[in-house]
């Protein structure tokens, strides 16, 4: 009996405060009576069920009723102070929106499900003991022997020419083992996946298209099955189409089961063999990785160095796909979280000021019998209303910012768009709003408990600070100052780093230049004897365009993403000095087209074969001797090259230094891939179509791709650092604005509360200026304290800036000092402005009102 | 004055069944919560058995709407002599009950006409 009653009493606690106060007693009593009447197990069970059902209906109804009441009351209160409420609402909406926007990025990268079956079991194998290139049987045998892998597949990625009908495009192809799709757990949308033995060398050439390619080239026609496409000159039959959203690894357009048969599709250049695997159910990644590493070392004990770059390792596939954007988005989430806290502190200020204003009203209500719980409930409802309304506005902001993130840094998986239309993101926004509402509504509400109703009624006009509100306010201001300082210091640091990137010496002239690329593998001009003619024709065609100043071509251009250099050791004749250099190929006219000046010597001529042009850094390694005219031995040719020119270092990555480079004439290297550069008069964008057409005219079967102006390339290479710098800078300024609003508000309230004291002082003869100065001093104290904490935080967390911009210097003394000065100055101005009303105070009026 | 009162009453219609029954019971005098429940159970021949939560929820709502008001606490000598809170009907509550009865009568009249039911003797 007693236990039943206690359980019931516990459940009654779910009722809202007021209802509980009124009716808990009769409810309990009734429960007791009815329980006594129910005799026997069956009756008691039935009784409990009906009691629970009753509560299940009644409790939500009562809560809803009280909520409606609280909301109406809160709306009335807010309507009376429209200005401040709107300000706080907008600030919160922006803060919640920004946080949700960044979270949607985190969600897309880290949390959302990949389009693979049980994606968390998928791993990428780095440096496996047996490579898939070793052959089908050895690889599969090894997989079977492991205790942690259920299955594994290998693949190589390459860009190749795809010809279908009259059109030719450059596409990314993944050459895989036959069970690639099986390992991922992906079923083709139409057609079939590779048969388990389809990667044997003697089998027919088949391929599976990606959904995107199918839509683009075949218009989504299901009759594509069985048709033939030509890849780098090799005909292949289409047997299936992958489901939409699947393009692993990264923008792949076609898959072919030729991983064990690298000769099938002709290609040039180095390629890396990669492997994925599926862990056996129940196996933990860390364990498996350890075993994997041990196996790899056992097979090749000498090959691996101890540094992380060359260690055999198992990565979760999800982490690999997220890449560096993962850390960056987490840091950004932290940044935006700080902004949110600053905005929430302003909400708390708002509520605090209204509590002290309404102290009289609350005291009366308390005297009339409203319990503390009831008043706290009211405060929480008011705060939640504000934050939830802000959340709705925030979702709009989030939607816009997600769109922005998409356009600046496209998601690494086509399927993983940054969107807020995902239950996790919406849930996050709601939870965020509710949590901040609770936290910052409860904080001021906790002060209500300290107010003694009767005492307050008498003393409320005197404004005695017994409630502890000023202490809470000071703490909030200090917190706002600390976070603001950290964000400002971060912004300054990133700004400086970014400016350095922008100002970095490139070594060439990006303005008024156009670049386009071709690749000859699989085209009629693939034959080395025909390449020279093709390139000559293309260059002639380009030079014939009116407005073109110069044209040339090279194998690798600066600012190309994912660039791998061929390198080798060079030796000048007559010395023992050896030097590593990266090898690049260029036609005559390349230097002029790129705007690269010649430091010494001359450019290539069409007759040059055994010649070389080197960069300044390379030349200096040879002891500064004048290299022009000297002979040099290259790693790929027994005959010596004569150095004919020296050029300045050109940077190949934003802010990065230039590699030590050696250029050889195209006539010698005869590369199969070439990028043309055309220097034009006037606006470079206008020349893109006509340059493309000019090269296309030489042979329509050769696809022309990556047609961009050099300025576009530069801009693209800087897009990520630019985005993060602007984002952090924006958040820093936003945080400063919010903090200043808070400081201003607190100063105003402080004056209002101490009106009486100020009046007395003025009457006694103190000058307004001295009072203002003393107020300034007092109000700046929490700001300074917070700033010191912020400096410590900024230096402590400063390393994280590296995740946003590569090689950024960590936050140092100078940005912190600058930020502190800015914060202190703006705070001082705000407080000084707020204190202007002291001057307008009339001491007589104040004292008389007492 | 009367007009605004009428609108206030109209806004409350139609009354939920439990509320109507409770108002009817209270027209006969003051009652406390448990007595109301018992009386309604009796009047409706066991058909309307109000569970505690629903009962006090309705009482709460009626208090808010001004249909009933609290009387002072006193022990119920018919029961176990424990102190219980009594409620009594207000003039507004009386008017609301009357209005509801009128509404129901009009409804029944309409039904009789449509369905061709004769007046019970």
Summarize the topology.
The complex is a heterodimer of chains A (850) and B (121).
Chain A: H1 2-12, H2 17-37, H3 41-80, H4 82-111, E1 122-126, H5 136-145, E2 149-164, E3 167-176, H6 180-184, E4 190-191, E5 206-209, H7 211-218, E6 228-231, E7 234-241, E8 254-256, E9 273-279, H8 285-299, E10 313-316, H9 317-322, H10 325-357, H11 359-368, H12 372-408, H13 423-448, H14 453-459, H15 469-503, E11 513-519, H16 528-543, E12 548-554, E13 566-572, E14 578-586, H17 590-594, E15 600-601, E16 611-615, H18 616-621, E17 631-634, E18 637-647, E19 661-665, H19 666-669, E20 673-680, H20 688-698, E21 704-709, H21 710-717, H22 719-753, H23 755-764, H24 768-797, H25 813-834, H26 836-840, H27 843-849
Parallel strand pairs in A: 3-8, 5-7, 14-19, 16-18
Antiparallel strand pairs in A: 1-9, 1-10, 2-3, 2-6, 2-9, 4-7, 5-8, 6-7, 11-20, 11-21, 12-20, 13-14, 13-17, 15-18, 16-19, 17-18
Helix pairs in contact in A: 1-2, 2-3, 3-12, 4-10, 4-12, 4-13, 10-11, 10-13, 10-15, 10-22, 11-14, 12-13, 15-22, 15-24, 15-25, 16-20, 22-25, 23-27, 24-25
Chain B: H1 2-12, H2 17-27, E1 31-32, H3 33-43, H4 52-65, E2 68-70, E3 74-75, E4 83-84, E5 86-89, H5 91-115
Antiparallel strand pairs in B: 1-5, 2-5, 3-4
Helix pairs in contact in B: 1-5, 2-3, 2-5
Please characterize this protein's 3D structure.
Chain A is of the alpha+beta class and 850 residues long. Chain A is 53% helix and 16% strand. Chain A has 27 helices and 21 strands. Chain A has a six-stranded mixed beta barrel. In chain A, strands 13-14-19-16-18-17 form a six-stranded mixed β-barrel. In chain A, strands 12-20-11-21 form a four-stranded antiparallel beta sheet. In chain A, helix 10 (325-357) crosses helix 11 and helix 16 (528-543) packs antiparallel against helix 20. Chain A is globular and about 105 Å long. Mean pLDDT of chain A is 82; it is low at 410-416 and 452-466. With 121 residues, chain B is mostly helical. At the A-B interface, helix 2 and helix 3 of A face helix 3 and helix 4 of B.
């Amino acid at each position: 009996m007693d236990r039943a009653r206690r359980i019931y009493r516990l459940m009654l606690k779910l009722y809202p405060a007021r209802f509980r106060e009124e009716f808990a007693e009769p409810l309990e009593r009734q429960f007791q009576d009815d329980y006594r009447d129910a005799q026997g197990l069956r009756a008691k069970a039935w009784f409990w069920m009906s009691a629970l059902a009753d509560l299940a209906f009644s409790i939500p109804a009562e809560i809803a009723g009280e909520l409606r009441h609280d909301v109406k009351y809160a709306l009335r209160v807010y309507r009376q102070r429209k200005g401040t409420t709107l300000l706080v609402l907008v600030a919160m909406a922006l803060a919640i929106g920004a946080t949700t926007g960044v979270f949607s990025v985190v969600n897309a990268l880290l949390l959302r499900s990949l389009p693979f079956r049980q994606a968390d079991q998928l791993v990428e194998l780095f440096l496996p003991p047996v490579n898939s290139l070793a052959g089908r049987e050895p690889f599969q045998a090894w997989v079977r022997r492991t205790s942690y892998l259920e299955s594994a597949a290998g693949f190589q990625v390459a860009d190749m020419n795809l010809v279908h009908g009259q059109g030719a495009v450059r596409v990314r192809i993944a050459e895989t083992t036959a069970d690639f799709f099986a390992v991922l757990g992906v079923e083709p949308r139409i057609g079939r996946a590779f048969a388990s033995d389809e990667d044997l060398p003697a089998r027919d050439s088949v391929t599976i298209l990606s959904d995107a390619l199918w839509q683009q080239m075949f218009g989504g026609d299901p009759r594509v099955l069985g048709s033939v496409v030509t890849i780098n000159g090799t005909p292949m039959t289409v047997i299936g189409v992958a489901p939409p959203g699947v393009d692993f690894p990264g923008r792949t357009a076609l898959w072919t089961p030729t991983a064990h048969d690298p000769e099938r599709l002709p290609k040039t250049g180095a390629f890396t063999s990669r492997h994925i695997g599926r862990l056996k159910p129940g196996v933990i990644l860390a364990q498996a990785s350890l075993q994997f590493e041990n196996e790899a070392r056992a097979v090749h004990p000498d090959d691996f160095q101890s540094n992380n770059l060359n260690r055999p390792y198992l990565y979760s596939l999800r982490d690999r796909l997220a890449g560096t954007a993962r850390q960056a988005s987490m840091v950004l989430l932290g940044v935006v979280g700080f902004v949110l806290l600053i905005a929430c502190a302003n909400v708390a200020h708002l509520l605090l000021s209204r509590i002290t204003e309404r102290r009289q009203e609350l005291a009366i209500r308390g005297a009339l019998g409203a319990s503390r719980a009831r008043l706290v409930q009211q405060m929480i409802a008011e705060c939640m209303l504000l934050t939830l309304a802000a959340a709705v506005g925030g979702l709009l902001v989030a939607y816009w910012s997600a769109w922005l993130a998409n356009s600046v840094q496209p998601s690494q998986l086509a399927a993983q768009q940054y969107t807020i239309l995902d239950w996790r993101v919406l849930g996050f926004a709601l939870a965020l709003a509710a949590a901040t509402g609770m936290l910052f509504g409860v904080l001021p509400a906790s002060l209500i408990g300290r107010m003694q109703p009767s005492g307050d009624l008498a003393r409320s006009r005197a404004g005695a600070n017994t409630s502890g509100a000023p202490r809470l306010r000071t703490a909030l201001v200090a917190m706002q100052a600390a976070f603001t300082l950290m964000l400002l210091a971060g912004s300054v640091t990133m700004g400086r780093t970014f400016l350095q990137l922008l100002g970095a010496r490139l070594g060439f002239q990006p303005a008024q230049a156009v670049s386009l690329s071709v690749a000859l593998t699989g085209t009629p001009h693939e034959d080395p004897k025909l390449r020279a003619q093709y390139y000559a024709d293309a260059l002639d065609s380009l030079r014939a365009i009116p407005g073109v100043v110069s044209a040339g071509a090279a194998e690798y251009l600066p600012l190309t993403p994912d660039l791998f250099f061929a390198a080798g050791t060079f030796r000048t004749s007559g010395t023992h000095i050896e030097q590593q250099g990266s090898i690049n190929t260029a036609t005559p006219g390349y230097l002029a087209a790129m705007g690269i000046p010649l430091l010494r010597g001359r450019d290539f001529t069409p007759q040059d074969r055994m010649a070389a042009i080197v960069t300044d850094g390379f030349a200096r390694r040879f002891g500064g001797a004048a290299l022009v005219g000297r002979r040099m031995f290259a790693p790929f040719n027994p005959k010596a090259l004569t150095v004919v020119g020296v050029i300045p270092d050109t940077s190949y990555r934003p802010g990065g230094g230039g590699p030590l480079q050696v250029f050889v004439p195209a006539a010698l290297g005869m590369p199969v891939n070439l990028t043309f550069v055309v220097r034009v008069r006037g606006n470079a964008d206008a020349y893109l179509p006509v340059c493309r057409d000019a090269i296309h005219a030489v042979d329509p079967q050769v696809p022309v791709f990556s047609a961009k102006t050099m300025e576009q390339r530069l801009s693209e290479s800087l897009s990520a650092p630019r985005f993060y710098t602007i984002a952090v800078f924006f958040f820093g300024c936003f945080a400063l604005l919010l903090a200043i609003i808070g400081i201003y508000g607190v100063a105003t309230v402080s004056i209002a509360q101490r009106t009486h004291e100020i009046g007395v002082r003025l009457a006694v003869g103190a000058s307004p200026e001295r009072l203002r100065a003393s107020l300034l001093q007092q109000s700046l104290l929490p700001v300074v304290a917070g700033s010191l904490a912020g400096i410590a935080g900024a230096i402590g967390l400063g390393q994280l800036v590296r995740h946003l911009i590569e090689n950024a210097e960590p936050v140092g003394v100078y940005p912190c000092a600058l930020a502190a000065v800015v914060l202190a100055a703006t705070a001082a101005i705000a407080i000084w402005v707020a204190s202007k009303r002291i001057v307008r105070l009339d001491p007589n009026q104040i004292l008389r009102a007492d | 004055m009367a007009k605004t009162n009428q609108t206030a009453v109209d806004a409350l219609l139609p009354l939920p069944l439990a509320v109507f029954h409770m108002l009817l019971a209270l027209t006969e005098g003051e009652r406390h919560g448990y007595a109301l429940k018992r009386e309604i159970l009796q009047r409706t021949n066991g058909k309307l058995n109000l569970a505690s939560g629903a009962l006090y929820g309705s009482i709460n709502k009626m208090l808010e709407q001004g249909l009933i008001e609290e009387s002072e606490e006193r022990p119920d000598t018919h029961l176990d002599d424990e102190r219980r809170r009594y409620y009594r009907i207000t003039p507004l509550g009386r008017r609301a009950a009357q209005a509801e009865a009128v509404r129901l009568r009009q409804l029944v009249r309409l039904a009789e006409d449509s369905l061709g039911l004769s007046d019970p003797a």
